UniProtKB/TrEMBL annotation:
Polar residues composition bias: residue spans: 290-299
Keyword Hydrolase: yes
Organism, as annotated: Lentzea sokolovensis
InterPro entries in the cross-refs: Pectin_lyas_fold, Pectin_lyase_fold/virulence, Pectinesterase_Asp_AS, Pectinesterase_cat
Protein's recorded name: Pectinesterase
Residue stretches making up the Pectinesterase catalytic domain: 33-295
Region (Disordered): 288-324
A Pfam family reported for this protein in Swiss-Prot or TrEMBL: Pectinesterase
Catalytic residue positions: 187
């Protein structure tokens, strides 16, 4: 990254439970909208269904998406709240939301295939992808799959696919991802928001390796990115770094995760421009696997602080949110 720069009712109930956000009694009824590219549903595109969802609603709108590939830019604006996108394929790979903008044409922040600003968003059983870098000669370009700038977002059984800068976790974000898959090359989880990844596979796909995270956590924000009981993999051994600080106070913790031999054991944290990783808030805690060795370049979270760095501490905020 450039440092400058069942049925419908059951689905609706599941979505409410998965986000941890119960609609108040005064809310209108939950809504289900359907999408199928072949014209067999209410809408042919995901964006058309989002546009049709009630604005500023505390009742959940569940948008079911028939298996297939949907090549479109998807935007969930801030006035489309409590939206769930539910893929209907048998696996997340069967429902794919994809586009191919890049930083060279749109700027990094505007290159995403999906933009989410509406609070209480949820996604399950689908893939969000930016396939720009799959074209010959475009490898290594910044091309965001998901630009997330929303409070209380939940992702379950989701794949995020990209190259450099796959996933922007922007500063309004408080989010939870579980049982999912994220891949990229350089800084492919980046930004200043707060997010927990749980039981998620994070894959560095470049043969020369690269840093997974580029956190820009504001100094006044206690929590940034937590990888909890995740699995870190890569295309090659002894090449992948855990991260580098996009801004000086970036906060990242890899906790109780499996670090495979892809990790560059001698130096898993690196500098970014004038930002020293040693001054950032980077820690590991009780990780396992061949990539989990310890040395002076691998700060370990003290046991005395472990209770203050749990998934729930990261997610609770001031409202006690608990999507787990």
């Amino acid at each position: 990254m450039n440092p400058r720069v069942a049925g419908a009712a059951a689905l609706a109930v599941l979505a409410l439970v998965s986000t941890g956000a119960a609609a108040p009694a005064s809310a209108g009824p939950a809504v289900t909208l359907t999408v199928a590219a072949d014209g067999s549903a209410q809408y042919r595109t995901v964006q058309a269904a989002i546009n049709a969802a009630p604005a500023n609603s505390s009742a959940r709108t569940t948008i079911t998406i028939k298996a297939g590939t949907y090549r479109e830019i998807v935007r969930v604006p801030s006035n489309r709240t409590a939206i769930t996108l539910q893929g209907l394929g048998s696996t997340p790979a069967q429902t794919v939301l994809v586009f191919n903008n890049s930083a060279s044409s749109s700027g990094t922040f505007n290159s995403a295939s999906m933009f989410v600003d509406g609070r209480d968003f949820a996604a399950t059983n689908l893939t969000i992808s930016n396939d720009y870098a799959e074209k010959p000669g475009t490898e290594g370009n910044q091309a965001v799959a998901l630009h997330l700038n929303a409070d209380r977002a939940v992702f379950r059984d989701v794949r995020l696919l990209g190259d450099q800068d796959t996933f922007l976790v922007n500063e309004k974000t408080r989010a939870y991802m579980a049982d999912s898959y994220v891949e990229g090359t350089v800084d492919f989880v980046f930004g200043g928001g707060t997010m927990v990844f749980e039981r998620t596979t994070v894959h560095e796909k470049r043969t020369t390796g690269g840093p997974i995270t580029a956190a820009s956590t504001p100094a006044a924000r206690k929590y940034g990115l937590l990888f909890y009981r995740c699995t870190i993999t890569g295309a090659t051994g002894d090449t992948t770094q855990l991260g580098r600080p996009w801004r000086p106070d970036g906060q990242v913790l890899f906790r109780e995760s499996t670090l495979t031999a892809t990790l560059k054991n001698s130096q898993p944290w690196i500098d970014m421009s004038d930002n020293s990783w040693k001054k950032a808030r980077f820690f590991e805690y009780r990780n396992t696997g061949p990539g989990a060795t310890q040395n002076s370049n691998r700060p370990q979270l003290p046991d005395s602080l472990a209770g203050d760095h749990t998934p729930q501490k990261y997610l609770a905020g001031t409202d006690g949110w608990n999507p787990r």
